[in-house]
Write a structure and sequence with these properties.
Layout lengths: L12 H13 L4 H20 L8
Helix pairs in contact: 1-2
Length: about 55
Amino acid sequence: MSVSYNFPLRLDDELREKLRYIAAQNSRSLNKEIEYLVKKHVEAYEKEHGPIAVPKE
């Protein structure tokens, strides 16, 4: 089972509002939009560089 963690993220007002707009267009919360973008970035990185091994705790 995965665990969620709070992660403070500082964004300037303009970027935050632009992301909020995009999130609304995609029927997502701002948090879920940022999570989606981060996942897509990781997927693209792994596609180019190979899987990232994450140690199991």
